[in-house]
Design brief:
single chain, alpha/beta, Dihydrofolate Reductase, subunit A, 5 helices, 10 strands, globular, binds NADP nicotinamide-adenine-dinucleotide phosphate
Length: 247
């Protein structure tokens, strides 16, 4: 089975940072408020145009995030959960039949969920055979859908193919941080990159657009072809690239 098209879509500073610092996610801390101040007024309209274009071109029915957007790097697996019962929790679990999915990679079982549906998107967690059974039992009790792919951690390629075969997803928009997008890039799973570049430089060693291990000897950078570029007078850039695959 083919994988869905994968479009990486993030906002970045001119130095390629997607967050202010590595130890604090934007979503759950005041860093998010500071990040908002970096957005020129045009950025909201540019984001809307980007979403409309993606809808028109690919009709994506799933977004993808990593657990790093929800919890800090220091967070470990949830503790104090009741042990799993007799169910085979390592089978895929689909609690709803949904048309749109908010998908999150959480192979270590670190996120305690406070919602399972928002804006018509249903929560779908990607886990592996190494995810604690108690966490999978917790997801089942909460009625939260999950797919199991991979032995030591989530096998992103297999998980994406399963999203296509089981859920009919033909395009996934990854709006994750550098850890997730870097892993997708290294695995050769990225087809297109959409960047909204904000007129700010952050410096330091916060998460970048693509993080992860350095290129190994014999590995090459991913070559891109520019599809379009839009410049707003207040400083927002919108860049679209496709991965060319040729090395
Ligand atoms: N500016 C933006 O548009 C934007 C968008 C999103 C996020 N952010 C910011 O970026 C930061 C989060 O970035 P991050 O890099 O810390 O977190 P992240 O991108 O969420 O990366 C960590 C996630 O990726 C998974 N992962 C990493 N390598 C993998 C591999 N080889 N195979 C399978 N799964 C893999 C991890 O899996 P495990 O489950 O195994 O841990 C974890 O779920 C936050 O500060 C957030 O606010 C900014």
């Amino acid at each position: 089975m083919e994988k869905p098209r994968v479009v990486v879509s993030v906002a970045t500073s001119v130095d390629g940072r997607v967050s202010l610092r590595r130890d604090r996610p934007l979503m759950t801390t005041d860093d998010g408020k500071v990040w908002e101040t970096l957005r020129p007024p045009s950025s909201a309209a540019v984001e809307e145009a980007r979403t409309a274009l993606l809808d028109r071109l690919y009709s994506p029915t799933a977004t993808l995030e990593g657990s790093g957007s929800m919890v800090p790097p220091s967070a470990g697996p949830l503790i104090g959960l009741p042990p799993a019962g007799s169910d085979d929790v390592y089978d895929d679990f689909l609690a709803v039949e949904a048309e749109r999915w908010f998908t999150v990679v959480d192979g270590r079982g670190r996120v305690r969920w406070t919602m399972k549906e928002a804006g018509g998107q249903h929560l779908l967690v990607l886990v592996s055979h190494a995810t604690p059974a108690a966490y999978l039992a917790y997801l089942r009790r909460e009625g939260i859908s999950y797919l199991v792919a991979g032995t030591q951690r989530v096998d992103l390629g297999a998980a994406l193919r399963r999203m296509r075969s089981r859920l009919g997803v033909t395009c996934v928009v990854s709006s994750g941080g550098g850890g997730l997008n870097g892993a997708l890039l290294r695995a050769g799973l990225v087809d297109e990159i959409q960047l909204i570049v904000l007129p700010a430089a952050i410096g330091g060693n916060g998460p970048g657009v693509f993080d992860g291990p350095a290129l190994a000897d014999g590995e090459f950078p991913t070559r891109l072809r520019l599809l379009s570029s839009n410049t707003e007078t207040d400083g927002t850039l919108w860049l679209r690239y496709e991965v060319t695959r040729s090395r």
